[in-house]
């Protein structure tokens, strides 16, 4: 039981014990009992209300303390985040190299191309080395591995035609196996490149296709001509049968070769692993005449400004500006039409208000005239009544006439 209730109960018992006994009837005792019960209930309500108020104040104080704690924690978190952001910005600035060249006057001029990443010193200059990225006017051009200033290893390159090459590089050239990601539909297709030239797509290396290995190791054996027997479990590695009858496992992503233009020769089916169907083979000579080179033409001392891409961007921006001007002209004309319509509507409203004002003035004038006429009629009636009254008064004062004389 609550201590406050116990205390009140004991006080009531003591008070009851100390009171002298009186001779009361049953009705008086019941009435006194009900009165004492009501007093006790009121006191208990008062104690309960005080306790509830104390609990509410305690909860409100706890809530305010919790809000203050959260506010302080949020302030500390924001301060810590700002410190981390400043530290990250400082780290980026320290590890960002800006490319520049000198103009005709010899003044140093930045080209807008940045390198961010790992680097190393080479004499008095620095070169990219490790993992980093090239940015041209805010756009990521290359992201991947560097070695001694050149793109070397795995990386991701944005080409001139907008496609993306994600694969291998060798001494600043696209070389090896990778994936070409189309800019238009984001379609992905694996291919093999050799020194910035596409050799073939990976899906063209089907069993039964003929190719020519161009390295000295294979040229000595039947001029390097070979037949694809089938792929292996390792991507880029194929089992080939040379024209001299020997079979070898060759990594075509690391080997220089070309696909032959004629169709596969007739062979027995037991030498083929996989499908015997074939499609149109890749034309190596046409690709050599029209090579698909990568977009990386600048070096890390005098980078190119990508004149072709910049020109295309300027033309596109000019079209956007023209379309924007056309839209602005149409919008301005629409605004003028809306303003004219609003002015006409305001004039109509003003004209209506003026007509209403004139009508009100006419009504007031007619009311005034009617009031004047009524006032004049009232005054005439009052004068007539006064004259009539005066006449009656005069008649009443005049002496009566003698009947005999009449």
Automatic annotation (TrEMBL):
Transmembrane segments: none annotated. Residues 341-406 are annotated as: Disordered. The keyword RNA-binding does not apply. InterPro entries: MORN. Residues 351-378, 392-406 have a biased composition (Basic and acidic residues). It comes from the Eukaryota. Residues 49-85 form a coiled coil. It holds the Pfam family MORN. Residues 341-350 have a biased composition (Low complexity). The keyword Methyltransferase does not apply. Signal peptide: none annotated. Keywords: Coiled coil, Repeat. This is MORN repeat domain-containing protein.
């Amino acid at each position: 039981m609550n201590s406050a209730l116990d205390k009140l109960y004991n006080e009531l018992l003591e008070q009851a014990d100390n009171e002298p006994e009186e001779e009361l009837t049953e009705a008086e005792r019941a009435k006194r009992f009900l009165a004492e019960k009501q007093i006790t209930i009121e006191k208990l309500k008062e104690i309960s209300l005080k306790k509830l108020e104390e609990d509410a104040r305690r909860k409100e104080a706890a809530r305010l303390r919790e809000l203050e704690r959260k506010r302080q924690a949020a302030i500390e978190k924001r301060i810590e985040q700002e410190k981390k952001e400043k530290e990250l910005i400082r780290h980026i600035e320290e590890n960002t190299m800006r490319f520049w060249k000198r103009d005709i006057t010899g003044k140093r001029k930045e080209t807008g191309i940045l390198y961010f990443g790992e680097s190393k010193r080479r004499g008095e200059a620095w070169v990219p080395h490790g993992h980093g990225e090239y940015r041209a006017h805010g756009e990521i051009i290359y992201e991947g591995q560097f070695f001694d200033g050149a793109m070397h290893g795995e990386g991701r390159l944005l080409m001139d035609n907008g496609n993306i090459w994600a694969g291998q590089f060798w001494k600043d050239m696209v070389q090896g196996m990778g994936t070409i990601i189309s800019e238009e539909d984001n379609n992905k297709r694996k291919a093999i490149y050799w020194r910035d030239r596409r050799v073939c797509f990976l899906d063209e290396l089907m069993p039964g296709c003929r190719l020519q290995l161009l390295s000295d190791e294979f040229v000595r054996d039947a001029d390097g001509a070979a037949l694809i027997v089938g792929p292996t479990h390792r991507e880029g590695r194929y089992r080939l049968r040379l024209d001299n009858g020997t079979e070898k496992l060759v990594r075509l992503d690391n080997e220089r070769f070309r696909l032959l233009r004629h169709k596969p020769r007739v062979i027995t089916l037991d030498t083929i692993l996989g499908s015997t169907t074939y499609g149109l083979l890749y034309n190596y000579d046409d690709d050599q005449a029209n090579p698909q080179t990568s977009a990386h033409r600048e070096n890390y001392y005098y980078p190119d400004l990508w004149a072709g891409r910049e020109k295309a961007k300027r033309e596109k921006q000019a079209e956007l500006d023209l379309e924007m001007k056309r839209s602005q002209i149409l919008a301005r004309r629409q605004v003028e039409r809306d303003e004219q319509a609003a002015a006409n509507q305001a004039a109509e409203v003003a004209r209506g208000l003026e007509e209403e004002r004139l009508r009100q003035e006419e009504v007031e004038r007619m009311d005034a005239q009617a009031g004047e006429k009524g006032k004049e009629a009232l005054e005439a009636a009052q004068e007539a009544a006064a004259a009539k009254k005066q006449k009656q008064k005069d008649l009443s004062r005049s002496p009566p006439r003698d009947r005999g004389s009449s």
